[in-house]
Write a structure and sequence with these properties.
The protein has 77 residues and is an all-alpha fold. The protein is 84% helix and 0% strand.
């Protein structure tokens, strides 16, 4: 529940700020996810398992963004 509320607030604030970069949105959401994972990981093993899976998915997405950016730099477009 806290993660959903936090993500909603972050997305609204970034939309008001007129930030259209998907990379920036994703990076802020990854950081928020890691903070929530650190805060709530000790409450329940089930919550920890779910948050770890979410963090892994975000990490994979982060790697995709890094690879795409590296490709853009190497190709020069």
């Amino acid at each position: 529940m806290a993660l959903a509320v936090l993500f909603s607030v972050i997305n609204v604030i970034m939309a008001i700020g007129d930030n259209k970069s998907l990379d920036a949105h994703f990076t802020v959401l990854v950081i928020a996810s890691l903070v929530v994972t650190l805060l709530f990981a000790y409450f329940s093993p089930k919550v920890r398992k779910t948050l770890n899976a979410l963090t892994f998915a975000f990490f994979v997405g982060f790697l995709v963004i890094v690879v795409l950016r590296a490709r853009d730099v190497l190709v020069g477009s």
